[in-house]
Amino acid sequence: MPLILSRRAFQASLLGYAATLRAAQKNCRTVPALCPPLPTGTPQPFQVEPGIANIQRKPLSLVVADANETNRLRLAYQKLRDLSVSDPSDPRGWAQQANIHCFRCAGNPSGADIHQSWTFLPWHRAYLYYHERILAELLGDATFRLPYWDWDVPANRNLPTIHRNKLDSANKPNSLFDADRGVNNGVTIPLGVILPDNVNAMNAPDFDTFGGTATDGGQLENTSHGMIHVWTGNPRLNPSFTDMGCLQTAGRDPIFYAHHGNLDRLWAEWNRRDTTHHVNPTDSGWLATKFEFFDHKKVYRSIAIGDVLDTANKLGYNYPPGAALAVPGRPRRSEVTYDSATHRIRISDDIKNQILGPGALNATRFLVVEGTSLPSDPGVYYIYAGSPPANKSASAPNYLGFIARLAAGHAHDAKSRLMLDASKGLAERASSPQGVQLTYVAAKSRARPARLNFANVYLVER
Ligand code: C2O
User: Fold this and answer.
1) 229 ligand 1 Cβ < 6 A
2) Could you tell me the CA-to-CA distances from 228 to 131, 252, 379 in Å, in that order?
3) Rounded Cα gap, residues 266 and 323, in angstroms
4) What's the pLDDT tens digit per position in 390-419?
5) Which parts of 368-442 fold into alpha helices (H)?
6) How much distance in Å is there from the Cα of 99 to the middle of ligand 1?
7) How far is the CA of 112 from the centre of ligand 1 (A)?
8) Are β-strands 415-421 and 456-461 bridged in parallel, bridged antiparallel, or unpaired?
9) Contact in structure between 266 and 53 (CB atoms under 8 Å)
10) pTM for this structure?
11) Is the CB of 250 under 6 A from ligand 1?
12) Whose CA is nearest to atom 3 of ligand 1?
């Protein structure tokens, strides 16, 4: 290394330094927790908004096709952004809205994390409800409802066009734009990875598997939900950067609220598809769990999970019923042998024959794996029966499913229930006399494969 750099080399090294700094600032682990805790004090209890009408939320694909709807949505977010500038202390403003999410992902060390457990779905429902009421208030239009990003429809698996450009058609700033995305160029998310067939959360046999338990996250959160976050933040599915790819900054992207709108809709849709098995928890502790928000009049309120389960009568919205997937059959459970000393699972010849035999195609079969320890680094992980193939492909015969893990600014031990594909690849390996271990590997990094550790496993057929 020459001690004296040429002027040009010196400038180049400065540029390199600036680039490194920029990259470091964008890395989730270094984003400061700019999310002050909510005020203490006694909140007012939730009450149904007097006179609120039950109005259907619309898919973004319809909003995009309708200039009036597009303008209304843009105006709503512009007003939210303006409020954040004119009065930064107003709890309803844009930055404050984003901070609520940051605080609840433990970006602030004293904030209680509502992710990776059964509080995930109801907390985000309540958050979106107050967000929606605030936007309606700023618009002076009580009929405004948040649209949802219908990414479960293959044609909508890219960022909606109305979010992509910095300026709108009249050359004014587009309030739906966010520069911190990897997908503003309209790239398409790879088909099949959002809602894979057998392990589609919509087939989950019970709420524990769909939406989590007191200690486990659920299938929806750790597959489709995480995948859209990671992909919106960074299309290469690498450990992600701001905004959407990182829990404490995700609320700074307007698409966040439409993404969670779709998750909220999928929850309602999952309930609708099988009213016998797809029921919400009845645990009194869950129902009584309360969350605090500022409402559209700046009143500090607390809302219980029990208040958010009937959206039509209490929160003023509903969703059009979906038809994209068949209504799943009655769930039937079979036991799988799990040796916790060798970490091997084994299925009987009987089950193997059912999976491989005639008629197998008419059923959906998956393993439910409880208490799975999630990898601590963010990214997308592929899961296999036995060793991962050298090319880490998702189409390998022993591929079972994936985990999509968001970045967060703090170390985060988390467990999840997962649904894994129980078809041919698993049947052949798990029926051998010694059984098989489950493994996972990061889809896009050099990290070595590791054994998947979990507490319990069984097989479900529907
Ligand atoms: Cu609170 Cu999609 O995360």
Assistant:
1) yes
2) 21, 15, 11
3) 11
4) 998 888 999 999 999 887 766 567 899 999
5) 424-430
6) 12
7) 14
8) unpaired
9) no
10) 0.92
11) yes
12) 247
